[in-house]
Every structure is written in C-alpha cells, then in structure tokens.
Amino acid sequence: MTYDTAARLTEILLALSFIQQGLEHLVRFRKEQILFGVRITLSLLVIAGLGGPWPLVGLALSSLVFLQRFQGPYNGGSDRMGLLALWCLTASRLLPGLKAQEVAFGYLGAQLILSYFISGWVKVLNPDWRSGRALRDVFQFSTYPVTEDLRRWADRPWVMLAMSWAVMLFELIFPLSLFSQPSLIVALVIAASFHLANACLFGLNRFFWTWLSVYPAILWLQGRIF
Known about the structure:
The protein is mainly α. The protein has one domain. The protein is globular.
C-alpha cells in the first residue's frame, strides 16, 4: 500500500467516523448542533476530496473548540485516538517534503501499536484483570442497556478468566504481528472483531469506527519498515 493510498483511506474512514458521531448530536442544544454540523460539513468535503488539505485544517482547528466546549476529549479514548489521527493527517498534508509527511503519518501507525500494547500492559498489572473480576464487573454492572442473558455471563467465572487473559495476551503480543503482512492482517481482523463485539454488546461504537480508520496507517507502516 502506497503512502498516498493509505493516507487517503485514513482520511475517508476518519471523516466517516466524525459524521457518525456528529449525527448523534444534531438533536441536542443549538450550540452543539452548530459545532457538529460544521464538523459533518468539513468531513463531507474531506470524503469528496474538495479543497485540498483545508477541510482537514478546519477539522483540526474545530477540534480545539470541541476540547474547550467539553473540557477535554468528549468521549475518552476514542476521541483521543480520533484527535491524534486528525492532527497526524493534517501535519502529513501540510509538512514540506515527502519524508516529513511520512514521519507524521508513520507516527500515527506507531501510536496504534502502542495503544494495544499499553492497554494490555495496564491490564496485566491489574489483579482484577488477572483474576477475571474486572471483565466480570463489565458484564454485570455495565451502564449500557444490555440484555439479562448477557449479564448472566458474569456468573461464569472461568469464562471471564479465559476471556480476560485472551484479551490481555492478544494486546501484549500485537506488536509481533508487524513482522509479516499476513500476520498483521490477521491481528487487525481479530482486533476489529473485538471492537465490533464491544460495539454490539455494550454500545461502544465509537471505538470501532475510530480504530478502524487508523488501520491503513499501520498497514502502510509495516510495509515501509519491513
């Protein structure tokens, strides 16, 4: 995958994730309607490829307004990754010289690798994750409207333990998938399936679309390094 193709795919997927988030807020207060309406408009321009890098610049500048309006990233980790992707893409389009542009874009791919590894490292240091209790609490006390059948999974401690260690081990060994493109593709399919399951079961749909938008960056980075 070439740099131009990977960057363009990331732009489109990220813009789609912004549109999906924005549509959730068009029924809110007028100030929020304006903010998200501007984001949706700029995202449509990015998808259409109109205006060169300037719609991306507009999205980056508007993200500062979002940070001030919501006193930080609106929705935690997914918004942080979205902001990182947006600013890396903007930098990669504005910096002079191909090498500088590739560094900015490659930084995004490297951060995706770290996001999985650090998440696994934090979990494995937590005794509640090692025992399966943390995941059990997620199923049992989720604030999202999940079914009672799903909550009953919390009553299966061995299943929770196995699932906890499966998640932790996958996240910890994720960087090893970079050594070959087939292994990276398999790892990304597993990761995407994990995010999709969380979206379907617990309503964490933002993580799925935001992380998916960054996958072209890591695919390009793997080809660039190896």
